[in-house]
């Protein structure tokens, strides 16, 4: 909105959370972290620097897109930043800065001359100090006289202003990167207009050529760059980059700090007079106001430090976390910070009454030697005007030197007072990045003791002598004001074209690129946290079949699993949402068992609620937290061994009907999935609702059709999943419905009818409905809750079990010798135990082996999908740390059951791998590579019932029929692309031959 400077928004965040060590907030849609606690500030800036070594905009530009800004240490990170800083550091030693002091003296002389001429007028002090710093840094870097005090708009000053201006294009860049942070990884921007860039490159080349051709030796920054070029063969563009970094930092920030310091002195005459006395005392006792003498002015230090404390020139220091870490706050509070997070350090701590007495008062005494100077405040982490730690301002010494020299010059010659034009209290320009005072700072400069002669009508006075800096400056100054400057006016037309191009790009290109950016903004997520994975594709991510539906997404997951065999985890994308596949068995156990508290929710636990979808929302699969615990606790007693045994007689009845049905159809091959669905529908309908579904006598029994519609991935369900895949956050404010309303009403009605019928007739029947009625009596659950429980049992019991049975019968039909061996076991038990019942089936060891091998070979879904509920760190092989953020979908692939690393000849159907001699399933479960029903607290609750009905049906079929695979079955099996579970394409057709 730019109605006020964002300083005030940071201030509000800082002040509103006074008791918090850190505050989480959002810049548009991007989460950022403000660290308020001084110990955390030191952790970010110093102790934990390795995690926060990059500035927030370190990745917006590069050397190709913006040759100058891209070479500024501010915008660099990693090894490039280290190299650039190492190159620049020797230029700012105490001795080198001292050699630049005479250049500052010369500029101070011109500034005093200028002020004397302007004595009758109040001056905008920001403009005055900018003239001063422009002349100083131009002289030190490019060895030119910028002529700021003699020319109205010197070219180098205008170019410097344009470099620092927040132009339309710069604002557009920052707006786009705020909305879509990941665009930084795909496109690099330019902040420095091309003509400004070319101007600075040209003057650097001219300065180099002039100095070399004339064998000039001058101990300035250019001299250092030339020695650096000779030693390290850096290019002229690198030299220009160094020069512009120095120019931009030394010009604008220093002039702003000087402005605020002079404002404070003008506002506090007592402080002003005391500082002037110190200056006069040094003059009287030491002579000149040279670099060494100014360095000994203790009160000047106090004055400048207090201004630096009171007037930060930016509201925050913005760092970017480069590697996920955990900050430890007061009372050992753990504050997880994910890689890529912007962490801001507010300079508002310098205005906090918790650390400074009467913080809004200008009081240099707080930094007196008696109080320890700035040391106690720096050590505490509440004074860092030039930042702190390894990224502390490299040019700090130079900045302080030029500011002190300018302030001393002004106070020595002039008495300061605020002019009425200054808007007090100061406010800040809303459209500027740094804290520029609205309306400027206007000060009256009254001449005190005139140490330099002046004649308004005489151009030959000291001003002229000061302006004569030597042949080096004059020669190059002439080159700037001569033909080359005129010649360089042409790119002004080019910059207009450049700005127009940005406008067109922003308005028109932005519309088209927004879709691209939206889809890809998070594609660097796994790279930033150091996790390997396949490169995602626009629109599809790494699971293209979610949208194309050409193949089952099983094959997408399989490719991810197989392509990264050496990785414990793989980071991939479902469309645009990052997901984490856990490949390592130990990590699988960590997610499902040991670290369950962090992964207690299924991925779609937050898609529905009880209002939007009363039935599906009551299914434990879609619940999490306390609701899941409550619902599971209600259901668990229904699946004890005794209760399931009581239901076995109902299974026997259905088995008789199934046998009769198959014998009637024996002349035809049967779609075994449909046959098994009839069986499980009749079993669960009988156990849950106490009704005969008549699946074997009716063509399309109503309950079977309604059950099918619950499990169908209809258009509405597909649309829901597609929307949540594109926009995961929609789950937080809109809940969906998977169960069609007429299906919902049907199951509620039959539950109500079953309850009424049983109560009206005083029927006692030890089934699942009986458990629900007792639950209703004990806990007063509603009929809608009972219907929810019933539908959960029905949906889980009929569809998944029928699919498991289908694959098991297919495996037996495909392996006659195994089929015969299992039939022999069944016949042997019948002969020795007197028939087939719940107990005798439980003793069939080989049946266990066959079923477990089929469960291993044919998972009914490709992955188990969990949702991380709390930031955590998994520890993989060799101590590798794997950060997982809250909300991340974590998938457990069933492909571990098909991995030759864990199973010999895994594609072979070999029940003997689970023989008692080999330990059954135990060694595989303990290793974390056998999990057909899940594992840990969320292991399938109805597993016992499912196994019981599956075994009973298989025994019935094998006892009565010999199975062979019919030619209608498409071998090898592939899976229906539009179904959630792994349904075989074309069905599984078997021939059932009756046997005695």
Automatic annotation (TrEMBL):
Its main location: endoplasmic reticulum. The keyword Protein biosynthesis does not apply. SUPFAM superfamilies: Cytochrome P450. Pfam families: p450 (PF00067). It is found in: Endoplasmic reticulum membrane; Microsome membrane. Belongs to the cytochrome P450 family. This is Cytochrome.
């Amino acid at each position: 909105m730019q109605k006020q400077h964002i300083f005030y928004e940071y201030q509000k965040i800082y002040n509103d959370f006074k008791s918090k060590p850190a505050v989480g907030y959002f810049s548009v849609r991007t989460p950022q972290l403000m660290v308020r606690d001084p110990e955390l500030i030191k952790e970010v800036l110093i102790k934990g620097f390795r995690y926060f070594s990059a500035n927030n905009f370190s990745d917006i530009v590069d050397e190709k897109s913006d040759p100058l800004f891209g070479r500024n240490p501010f915008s660099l990170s990693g090894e490039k930043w280290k190299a650039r800083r190492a190159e620049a550091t020797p230029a700012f030693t105490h001795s080198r800065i001292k050699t630049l002091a005479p250049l500052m003296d010369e500029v101070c002389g011109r500034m005093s001359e200028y002020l004397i001429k302007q004595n009758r007028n109040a001056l905008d002090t920001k403009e005055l100090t900018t003239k001063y710093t422009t002349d100083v840094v131009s002289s030190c870097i490019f060895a030119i006289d910028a002529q700021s005090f003699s020319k109205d708009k010197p070219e180098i000053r205008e170019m410097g202003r344009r470099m620092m201006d927040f132009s339309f294009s710069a604002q557009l860049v920052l707006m786009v990167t705020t909305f879509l942070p990941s665009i930084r990884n795909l496109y690099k921007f330019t902040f420095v207009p091309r003509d400004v860039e070319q101007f600075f490159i040209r003057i650097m080349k001219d300065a180099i050529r002039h100095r070399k051709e004339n064998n000039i030796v001058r101990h300035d920054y250019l001299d250092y760059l030339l020695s650096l070029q000779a030693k390290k063969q850096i290019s002229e563009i690198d030299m220009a980059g160094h020069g512009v970094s120095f120019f931009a930092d030394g010009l604008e920030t220093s002039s702003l700090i000087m402005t605020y310091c002079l404002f404070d002195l003008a506002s506090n005459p007592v402080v002003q007079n005391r500082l002037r006395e110190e200056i006069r005392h040094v003059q009287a006792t030491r002579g000149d106001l040279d670099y060494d003498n100014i360095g000994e002015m203790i009160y000047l230090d106090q004055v400048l430090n207090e201004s630096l404390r009171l007037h930060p020139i930016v509201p925050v220091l913005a760092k970017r976390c480069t590697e996920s870490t955990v900050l430890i706050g007061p009372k050992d509070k753990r504050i997880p910070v994910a890689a890529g997070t912007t962490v801001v350090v507010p300079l508002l701590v310098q205005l906090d009454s918790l650390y400074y007495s009467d913080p809004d008062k200008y009081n240099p005494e707080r930094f007196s030697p008696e109080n320890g100077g700035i040391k106690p405040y720096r050590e505490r982490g509440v004074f860092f005007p030039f930042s702190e730690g390894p990224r502390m301002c490299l040019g700090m010494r130079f900045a302080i030197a030029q500011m002190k020299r300018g302030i001393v010059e002004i106070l020595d010659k002039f008495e300061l007072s605020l002019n009425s034009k200054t808007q007090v209290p100061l406010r800040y320009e809303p459209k500027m990045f740094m804290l520029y005072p609205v309306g400027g700072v206007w000060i009256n400069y009254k001449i005190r003791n005139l140490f330099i002669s002046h004649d308004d009508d005489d151009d030959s006075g000291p001003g002229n002598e000061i302006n004569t800096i030597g042949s080096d400056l004059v020669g190059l100054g002439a080159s700037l004001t001569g033909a080359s400057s005129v010649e360089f006016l042409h790119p002004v037309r080019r910059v207009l074209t450049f700005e127009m191009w940005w406008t067109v790009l922003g308005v028109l290109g932005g519309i088209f690129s927004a879709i691209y950016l939206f889809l890809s903004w998070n594609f660097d997520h796994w790279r930033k946290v150091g996790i390997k994975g396949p490169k995602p594709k626009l629109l599809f991510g790494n699971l293209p079949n979610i949208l194309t539906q050409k193949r089952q997404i099983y094959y997408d997951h399989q490719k991810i699993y197989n392509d990264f065999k050496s990785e414990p985890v793989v980071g991939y994308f479902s469309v645009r949402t990052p997901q984490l596949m856990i490949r390592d068995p130990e990590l699988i156990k960590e997610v499902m068992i040991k670290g369950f508290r962090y992964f207690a929710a299924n991925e779609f636990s937050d898609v529905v609620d009880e209002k939007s979808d009363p039935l599906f929302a009551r299914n434990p699969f879609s619940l999490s937290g306390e609701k899941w615990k409550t619902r599971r606790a209600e259901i668990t007693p229904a699946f004890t061994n005794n209760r399931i045994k009581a239901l076995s007689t109902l299974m026997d009845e259905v088995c008789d009907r199934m046998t009769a049905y198959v014998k009637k159809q024996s002349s035809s091959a049967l779609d075994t999935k449909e046959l098994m669905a009839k069986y499980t529908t009749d079993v669960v309908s009988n156990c849950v609702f106490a009704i005969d579904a008549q699946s074997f006598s009716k063509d399309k029994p109503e309950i079977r059709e309604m059950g099918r519609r619950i499990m169908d991935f209809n258009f509405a369900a597909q649309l829901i999943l597609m929307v949540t895949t594109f926009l995961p956050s929609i789950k937080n404010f809109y809940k969906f419905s998977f169960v069609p309303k007429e299906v919902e009403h049907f199951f509620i009605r039959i539950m109500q009818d079953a309850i009424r019928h049983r109560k009206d007739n005083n029927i006692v029947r030890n089934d699942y409905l009986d458990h629900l009625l007792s639950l209703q009596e004990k806990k007063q659950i509603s009929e809608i809750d009972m219907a929810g429980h019933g539908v959960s049992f029905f949906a889980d019991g009929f569809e998944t079990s029928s699919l498991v049975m289908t694959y098991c019968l297919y495996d037996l039909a495909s392996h006659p010798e195994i089929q015969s061996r299992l039939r022999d076991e069944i016949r042997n038990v019948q002969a020795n135990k007197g028939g087939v019942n719940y107990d005798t089936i439980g003793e069939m060891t080989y049946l266990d082996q066959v079923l477990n091998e089929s469960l291993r070979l044919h998972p009914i879904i490709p992955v188990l999908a969990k949702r991380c509920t709390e930031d955590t760190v998994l520890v993989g092989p060799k101590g590798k740390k794997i950060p997982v953020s809250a909300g991340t979908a974590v998938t457990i692939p069933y492909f571990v059951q098909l991995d030759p690393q864990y199973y010999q000849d895994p594609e072979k159907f070999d029940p003997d791998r689970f023989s008692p001699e080999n330990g059954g399933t135990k060694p595989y479960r303990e290793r974390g590579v056998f999990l057909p029903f899940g594992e840990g607290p969320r292991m399938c609750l109805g597993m016992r019932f499912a196994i019981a009905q599956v075994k009973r049906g298989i025994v019935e079929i094998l006892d009565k029929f010999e199975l062979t695979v019919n030619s209608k079955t498409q071998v090898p099996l592939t899976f229906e692309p539009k179904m959630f579970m792994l349904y075989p394409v074309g069905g599984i057709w078997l021939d059932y031959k009756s046997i005695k």
